Amino acid sequence: MARHALRLGMVGGGEGAFIGAVHRMAAALDGDWRLVAGAFSTDAGRNMRTGEALDLDPTRVYPSIETMIAREQVLPADSRIDAVTIVTPNHLHAPMAIAALNAGFHVICEKPMAMNVAEAEAIAAAVAASGRRFALAFTYSGYPLIEDARARVARGDFGAIRLVQVEYLQGWLSQPIESGGNRQAEWRTDPARAGMGGCLGDIGTHAFQLAEHVSGLRVQTVCADLATHVAGRRLDDDVSVLLRFDGGARGVLKATQVAAGEENGLRLRIHGEKGGLEWAQMEPNTLVLRWLDWPTELVRAGGPGTLHGTSALFRTPAGHPEGYIEAFANIYRAFAAAIRGEPEPESRAWMPGVEAGLRTMTFVEAVVRNSASHAKWTAVDAPKSGSG
């Protein structure tokens, strides 16, 4: 029997926004989702123009999330939205996610999960109380070769892990473009909307989540240095962190948005006692395997040597590039399967949810505390568990 597409409502992502369009493309890729409603902007004109461009029923283009929730709740079950996607600035994530969950809707949210640990814990409590599903847009978890890498580490291919190095280099904030009308830069450098971390919250959380996700290890303590290189900027634009993992592994995290000329240079390297791996987001179809006593191997997406459990994440024949949109779509596909209550195969174990959000917020707070203090090391407190 054919499955119907789940119905999606979006908050944020209006005309001129970047990430909302990415979410819409990804959600549509497999036919699991159909965008039917939205509150895309607080600007009424921009909101309606976005709805028109997306060919939505104008009666389901709402002025606010509160209106969307109230009106969607009274629609018949076979037409109301099933889930809400939140693609707003960070300060709205928690109140919007909690409101949607309490109203009985599933939620997929942009990262970081919230402004602080307290808000993240409130979201986790709402997930547990509502029984609804919650997913977090840590996109890089959805890349097929990241899942391949995670599985290789988990089955012990490299022995005990000793070293974890992750870097995320961008250059787009090398100048004070937030003062020149760039809306994306404006809110990301505003503590009231972005939170306590600038570069740290925006891309440092991606790097941290990827390091823990693939290594299977948890960071215990951090030694951090936050810097702001652009004069007048109110949040960090450069992050350097030493990491100590459980089990004794050591790590380094570097994230910056002022490396002039860099595009989206996310790179992960993990080494154990017998070998290691390397993956780079700008060349996502190659996983490099290095061995102590064997020649270096290149595993190509969809080609021979990829692990059987990752096959569901590949979408194109070997040699055909796939990347960012497809990785996002993998999250939406896994989220749809979770909502439908389909059996949870091993290939969906990677989907980021509440736990990933809590971990990243505890990391952000620990880094900020450490950088502001004279302590050499600061503990990353274990978050309260929540269902996702």
Q: Would you tell me the structural class of the helices and strands?
A: alpha/beta
Strand order, biggest sheet?
13-12-11-10-6-9-8-7-14
Major beta sheet summary: 9 strands, mixed
What radius of gyration results from the CA coordinates? Answer: 21 Å
- CATH homologous superfamily of the largest domain - what is it? Dihydrodipicolinate Reductase, domain 2
Helical region count? 11
- The overall strand count is 14
**Assembly state here?**
single chain
- Helix-strand topology string: EHEHHEHEHEHEHHHEEEEEEEHHE
CATH hierarchy: architecture of the largest domain: 2-Layer Sandwich
What name does CATH use for the topology of the largest domain? Dihydrodipicolinate Reductase, domain 2
Distance between the termini: 28 Å
Number of individual domains: 2
Overall mean pLDDT: 94
Helical residues, percent: 25-40%
Shape: globular
Which range does the strand content fall in? 15-25%
Low-confidence stretches: none
Under the CATH scheme, which class of the largest domain?
Answer: Alpha Beta
List the defining traits of the structure above.
2 domains; 388 residues; 11 helices; Gfo/Idh/MocA_oxidoreduct; five-stranded parallel β-sheet; NAD(P)-bd_dom_sf; nine-stranded mixed β-sheet; 14 strands; 22% strand; alpha/beta; Dihydrodipicolinate Reductase, domain 2; Gfo/Idh/MocA family oxidoreductase; nucleotide binding; single chain; Rossmann fold
